[in-house]
Design goal:
Shape of chain A: globular
Number of strands of chain B: 24
Radius of gyration of chain A: 24 Å
Low-confidence stretches of chain A: none
Largest interface: A-B, 94 and 85 residues
Largest sheet of chain A: 7 strands, mixed
Helix content of chain A: 10-25%
Number of helices of chain A: 10
Distance between the termini of chain B: 59 Å
Shape of chain B: globular
Mean pLDDT of chain B: 97
Helix content of chain B: 10-25%
Distance between the termini of chain A: 51 Å
Strand content of chain A: 35-45%
Number of domains of chain A: 2
Mean pLDDT of chain A: 97
Largest sheet of chain B: 8 strands, mixed
Structural class of chain B: alpha+beta
Order of helices and strands of chain A: HEEEHEHEEEHEHHHEEEHEHEEEEEEHEE
Number of strands of chain A: 20
Oligomer: heterodimer
Radius of gyration of chain B: 24 Å
Strand content of chain B: 35-45%
Chain lengths: 446, 479
Amino acid sequence: MNAMRDLESRFDRAAGALLGALKAGEELSLEFAGESSLFMRFNQARVRQIGAVEDAMVDFKFCRDGRTSRRILTLTGEAGRDAELAARALEAARAEAALLPVDPYQVLPAAGGSSSETFPGKLPDPDAAPKEVLGPAAGMDFVGIHAQGAVARGAANSKGARHWFAAENFSTDWSAWLPSGKAVKSCYAGREWDSGEHARRLQAARPLLEGVAKPDKVLEPGSYRAYVSPGALEELMVFFSWRGLSEREFREGESSFMALREGRKSLSPKFALTQDFTLGVEPRFNELGEVAPERLVLIDGGRLASSLVSARTALQYGVASNAAPEHEGLRSPAVAPGGLAEADALKALGTGLYVSNFHYANWSDFENARVTGMTRFACFWVEGGKIVSPIKDMRFDESLYDLFGANLEDLTRERSLIPAVGSYGMRDIGGMLLPGLLVNGLRFTL
Amino acid sequence: MTKDLARLLEAALPTGAEWASLRRVRSVERSYSARDGKFDAALVFEDEGYMIEVLSGGQFGYAAAASADPAALKRAAERALALAEAASPLALARFSPAVRPAWKHRWETPRAKAGLLGADLLAGAAVAMSAAMRLDPRIIQTTAAVETRDIEVEIVSTSGAALEQVLHLVSTGKNAVAREGNVVQNRSGHGPRGEFRQAGSEFLDLPALEEAARKTAREALELLGAEDCPSMTGDLVLAPDQMMLQIHESVGHPCELDRILGDERNYAGSTFVKLEDIGTLRYGSELMNVTFDPSLAGEAASYGFDDTGAEAKKEFIVEKGVLVRALGGLESQARSGKPGVADQRAEGWRRPPVDRMANLNLEPGASSFAEIVASVERGVYMEANRSWSIDDFRNKFQFGCEYGRLIEDGKLGRVVRNPNYRGISSSFWRNLRMVGDRSTFEAYGTPNCGKAEPNQVQFVGHASPTCAFRGVEIFGGEA
């Protein structure tokens, strides 16, 4: 709790210093991100690197005379020093704004309101983390990262909005390897660490490792039936955010779903995608202090129902905002379930591939929404509904109009909550709720 | 300045530490962008913080915080020591202070003009570039950005290191989106973030930037009328702005020692290269000479020392096609017993240093561009990366480019859109059959290479001549 309180104090002090020093005719919106984290990187079930990071940043937009200047500053945690840094940053923003051209689509803060969500956790003592995390993995080639601690996000503006979200949580993102280079992947994440659950997950990996120890089946390029697990689907969800469902990208020709938008193509009637904050893993507020609807249906029955619209895009194009952040990326996505019981997935697959993970996917053809990527970790060849052997990794290259469209046979009834465990700059928050997909053709090329 | 830092370290030093260091990083990033000929955004990011590293029982522990308050640094040092002590019984490797060299040095990006450019000039340049691309109603969007970043790093240690480094990074970016009917094409010039390098304020040559922007827009329009790249197995000629990506993904990452040692397997991936391959592996044809070169003036990742303080020197990684050295810093060299380079780098003050590429270049050969084209019976010339994907052992890749031209009977022919190719790293480089001379040699870079757990973004530079490869699987958008 102390770390979360400390981060909230930093947020309030910075917000107070910035908002309290505004002059007549000036407006400001700010967002805050902070963490107090332990990171332990491991390889061969031994510690490669271990350390602690205390970090807090304020990112603000200053508006005056039709001009907008944005600044990010790092907070030290010392009250006097941070007030001084904030005052200096505000003065610099004021001076710079005077030099800038007019912002043609300036969005002034409008949203008021407040919210506060705090989720205390139960985490291992940081000094005990090496034994706690690595002890049960003795004898395994256990590789990955354990991160734990407090993470926080906040937003405030000169119209009185004040929003706060903080959680204490952990993630142990790992894989277990055989000398042959085959591996199984897992992730244990949550707010309450349970050493028994961690040990059980490790234990469950051992028979899977035996499965991937069998000789690989080498597939020829071609189209195969496939079951795409929720973990593999996660790798593809980025394509709804990157050249995806942003209203600005649609307007400016940068979405790869232009044909979906213009009704020239559709996805399967079985495919539905919602931005769903009821998952409770991510706050609804954005950098302007606006609060997004609890649920926003984006794709319904295979057709585009809504795009992600920020206030800036709304102003420029005269459309309604749905409180998307300015980058118009997808938050808390949930893909609707289907009718296939997960337990029956292999039987329904019959003969084909079980894909546990994809890797390094990228657009390969924007106009046709085609994506290429690799299979990774424990992917198997299945015959007659039974796993036969692991496969040698294959490259796929497939249009999402086919994968989520004509080729989509069904989705599983059960869905998995996949936590966000990235840590570029700072630990991510969020996650996605995903089913598995049964597809009657996935094109492999190499 | 390092004297102040040394005093802070001395005051913070906890009892029981075998060795400690303090690294201060200050970064000021300025970014100005325009869209459709109008101002879009201005951002200044000022960031400063400290990482203290403590060695105990052969294990490093680190603590990072933004505060320079002596009491806060002392708490950080105690935290780092406690973590090192807790992890030491389970350490993967035992290190000594030898992996943190103790020497004194100062390095700074050479600049022709050292003055700071005003926000009005930088924002104005972005607006002008964006406006210059609005040549035709079929151009439906233009964006441009001008960015500068100044990074100061200081390192002191209890063994006597006193290091200072100042890097001045600049980049210009642009993109034109053209549409006719249902065909939408984009052209950025040299890839989305390719124009990234070290320089002073001399980089802002507005007439040249505007002319490059107009060329970019003309080529986006040209792509609208182009046919899709045909499928073939033929010769592939890559411009330096695509060679950048080819080197990065299929030479740089596979040759990183930490990947070879298994550290990266859970995230960015492993490699097909094995420790025993160093010194023996036939990586490419005799024409392939790849160097780690932190000394190339103006290239994005030139520097005097890495974030462990190791002195940066030019070294061959692949010489006449044979892998002679891997990309690994002092820790990986100590663990593996293999030679490496000074490339253990950290993203700012928040992250510990890990093996990264810096400047990784393909050395020029002997062929002119005209000779390369003349040697091709049937193939495709490609410029500017737009798609990149490779497997976690860095073998099976598929890359796409913005702009292609057919080559038939030794002549550059019509423009093709959506050019892509795929291959396998270990065989692709063995089919390198011509390497361009110095007249074709150009340097590009990227600010956003991702790797490591916790995740880190790092900037890298890649310089290369134009190159030709034989027998490559080439295809277009509909294939």
